[in-house]
Design brief:
The protein is an alpha+beta fold and 299 residues long. The protein has two domains: 3-145, PurM-like, N-terminal domain (60s Ribosomal Protein L30, Chain: A, 2-Layer Sandwich); 160-278, Phosphoribosyl-aminoimidazole Synthetase, Chain A, domain 2 (Alpha-Beta Complex), CATH 3.90.650. It has eight helices and eleven strands. The chain has helices at residues 3-6, 8-15, 64-82, 101-117, 182-191, 204-215, 234-239, 255-265; strands at residues 25-27, 34-37, 43-53, 85-95, 121-129, 135-145, 160-164, 194-200, 218-221, 245-250, 271-278. It has a six-stranded mixed beta sheet with strand order 1-2-3-6-4-5. A five-stranded antiparallel beta sheet has the order 8-10-7-11-9, with helices on both faces. The longest helix has 19 residues, at 64-82. The chain is globular, with a radius of gyration of 19 Å.
Length: 299
């Protein structure tokens, strides 16, 4: 059996099964970020690592500045999904020896620019030679208040499902220059009880079922309500990925207040109800066009 026969979720299910976790781990593998207790118990420590690989997340010839921006912002989008505040980052660069030094310097300029946007300090990392392709791994550490962290696991039957922004077309537009929804997620958890949340990096068709599985519920999506980016279809919005918007579940009792206050706080960013969480079905769940699945996409 090869990795392509399994796909990312089934592979992780095998690798992470029965991992020993200390009692201080609040959220481990399977969520957007790892969350662990700190000695003073006032806040929770948040950890995340992510990578961008040439030929997968960016193409040869892509601006190194944009690659650096994306390499930093991908893990910060997971911090947004957790409603956490990032503080420190470590950068690991793996590149062939023939890589231009000027390209690497421009890469780090993009990393620094993205880190500065969210007051993150790059405090170290590693470099390594590789025959190729170029890969950059970014690890981020930060914190979240004990009563404000979000995960994929808390969705409840009857919850409304909302997404921020517009979906689809990111690969042609924003996937290299997006800004994580950290400010929006921090506002959400300050003002509302968010039952479950994650960021949309692999497409709604992959990520919504992940949230439902983690919460042990089903889902019902209203396709006609999907907030589509200009020039895209519903299938694009579900399957393309790289949107880096928030998907979250909230009690329907809060719907009207949420929509009213969101419009005042973030007038330039759409917020759309796209469905709800339901009882776990006895038959096949609602089928969606599949989003991005690592190890199973054509190279």
């Amino acid at each position: 059996m090869r990795l392509g026969d399994l796909g990312e979720d089934q592979l992780l299910g095998q690798l992470l099964f029965n991992l020993p976790l200390a009692r201080t781990v609040a959220a481990g593998p399977g969520d957007d970020c790892a969350i662990v207790e700190t000695p003073d118990h006032r806040e929770l420590l948040v950890l995340k690592t992510d990578c961008v690989v040439e030929g997968v997340h960016f193409l040869r010839g892509t601006s190194a500045l944009d690659v650096g921006w994306k390499a930093m912002m991908r893990p910060l989008s997971d911090f947004a999904a957790t409603s956490a505040v990032p503080q420190f980052a470590l950068i690991t660069l793996m590149a062939p020896k023939q890589t231009e030094v000027a390209w690497v310097k421009e890469l780090y300029r993009g990393l620094r620019r993205a880190a500065t946007r969210f007051k993150v300090s790059i405090v170290g990392g590693e470099t390594s030679r590789t025959p190729g392709p170029i890969a950059i791994s970014t690890s981020v550490v930060g914190w979240v208040e004990r009563d404000r962290w979000a995960s994929r696991r808390g969705g409840k039957v009857g919850d409304d499902l909302f997404v921020t922004g517009r979906l689809g077309g990111a690969l042609k537009r924003k996937h290299l220059r997006f800004t994580p929804r950290i400010a929006e997620s921090r506002w959400l958890t300050k003002n509302f009880s968010i039952h479950a949340m994650m960021d949309l990096s692999d497409g709604l068709g992959t990520d919504l079922p992940r949230l439902a599985r983690a919460s042990k519920v089903g889902f019902e999506m209203e396709m006609k309500n999907l907030p589509l980016a200009r020039g895209t279809t519903a299938d694009d919005a579900i399957s393309e990925g790289e949107d880096y918007e928030l998907l979250f579940a909230i009690s329907p009792r809060d719907r009207n207040r949420l929509e009213r206050q969101w419009g005042k706080k973030f007038p330039n960013l759409p917020l759309t109800r796209i469905g709800s969480l339901s009882q776990l079905p006895t038959k096949d769940r609602q089928l969606l066009p599949r989003g991005y699945v690592h190890f199973q996409q054509p190279s």
